[in-house]
Amino acid sequence: MENRRLVMIPGPTPVIDSIQKQMGRPTAAFGDPDFVKDYKEVIADLKEMWGTEGEVFVIAGSGTIAMEMAIANTTKKGDNVLIISHGYFGDRFIDLCERKGIHVDVLSSEWGKIVPVSEIEKKLSEKTYQALTVTHVDTATGVCAPIEEIGKAVAKFEETLYIVDGVCATAAIPESVDKMGIDVLLTGSQKAFGVPPGLAIVWAGPKAMERRGVLGTIPEFYADFDKWLPIMNNPALYFATPAVNLVWAMKEAIRIIKEEGLENRYARHIKVAKAMQSALETIGLKVLAEPDCRAVTLSNLIYPKGLDDAEFRNIMLKEGVVVAGGLGPYKGKMFRLGHMGNTDTHELVAVMAAIERTLYKMGVNIELGKGVGVLQKGLLE
Ligand code: PMP
């Protein structure tokens, strides 16, 4: 008999039944008064829970359109943007900006490490940047950026807007838009919210909205804040068709987050990551990100010498667990495991046991149950 397939990649994450049910509801007309009320509630909750005096945009699209929206509404051709990159997704801003004729400077870290905040501050003082981008958790490296400290450095430069990519962090790691000095926070539905892929979410603080105003007409159409703002203020209006069932799924995800409490949710992610990472290290895997900048939403694990990536992931699949491969310089050398959102104890224990069985089948000298024991102890603390 085949094992059921658990998807434990760093997004999309497991979707729990009550959220899945919203995806299966008969789709309503986007002007349906009940749907309009639900959309309104989602927008209001996201604004309140992430603490901004500005605006929130919830539209159909993946995280990448949210990145595009952030840049398109705050910068123009000829502007300077400073990109802080801790991996593949940090680098994504380079092409995105250059296509728009924006001059970019990039501060990159070696994979697994962070760019020191002092270096960022020094670079900001060299010329005027209209915006700075940073990826809160780079999914390619599992590195978590110190967004609050970076925010303090950016705050010293009046002209520079602070853009944070929260795709692999939002709803799992604290991100208070106004309090942390973030001007634009962008994210997607498919990671720590535990909603299927397809919703892009962007928070824009007052300074970012002011900048949008100064820019006038921008080349982008679908990504324009000005096109969406009337709809966010009154979802009964139409600009482009909302993803009706995804909005319902997000409403249920927010209900679950409120029930758990945001602070408890953040604490749970820390506990799970600590337990999972020490269990994985116990059985001989190495976490790529250094301990002082290690994300709690996923773990990127370097194989012991001689272990074949394709074989590992194929056996894992037969054991019933899907994990993701490494990217860039770590392709074939690493696998990536998500442990964020509404991932529960059953799934965590099952994935750990599947990793042990896989390594055992590959001839690694491993004591079955050792990692599972460490994980369970950590989860019970
Ligand atoms: N930023 C980060 C940190 C991501 O992890 C991803 C997707 N893995 C993206 C941006 C792009 O999001 P999407 O694939 O939903 O377009």
Short description:
The protein is globular, with a radius of gyration of 21 Å. It has helices at 17-23, 33-49, 63-72, 88-98, 117-124, 147-154, 206-215, 225-233, 244-260, 262-282, 309-318, 345-361, 370-380, and strands at residues 6-7, 55-60, 80-85, 103-108, 131-135, 137-138, 143-144, 161-165, 184-188, 199-204, 286-287, 298-302, 321-322, 324-325, 334-338.
Report what the structure shows.
The protein is of the alpha/beta class. 41% of the residues lie in helices and 16% in strands. The chain has 13 helices and 15 strands. The model has no long low-confidence stretch (mean pLDDT 98).
* Beta-strand share of residues: 15-25%
Rg value:
21 Å
Q: Tell me roughly what share of residues is in helical segments.
A: 40-55%
> Can you give the mean pLDDT?
98
Stated plainly, the CATH topology of the largest domain is called Aspartate Aminotransferase, domain 2
Largest β sheet strand count, sense and barrel closure:
7 strands, mixed
Q: What structural class do helix, strand and pairing data support?
A: alpha/beta
Instruction: Output the number of helix runs.
Output: 13
Tell me the overall shape: globular
Strand order of the largest sheet: 2-10-9-8-5-3-4
Write the layout of secondary structure elements.
Elements: E1 6-7, H1 17-23, H2 33-49, E2 55-60, H3 63-72, E3 80-85, H4 88-98, E4 103-108, H5 117-124, E5 131-135, E6 137-138, E7 143-144, H6 147-154, E8 161-165, E9 184-188, E10 199-204, H7 206-215, H8 225-233, H9 244-260, H10 262-282, E11 286-287, E12 298-302, H11 309-318, E13 321-322, E14 324-325, E15 334-338, H12 345-361, H13 370-380
Parallel strand pairs: 1-13, 3-4, 3-5, 5-8, 8-9
Antiparallel strand pairs: 2-10, 6-7, 9-10, 11-12, 12-15, 14-15
Helix pairs in contact: 1-9, 2-9, 5-6, 10-13, 12-13
The structure holds 4'-deoxy-4'-aminopyridoxal-5'-phosphate.
The site of 4'-deoxy-4'-aminopyridoxal-5'-phosphate has 12 residues, from α3.
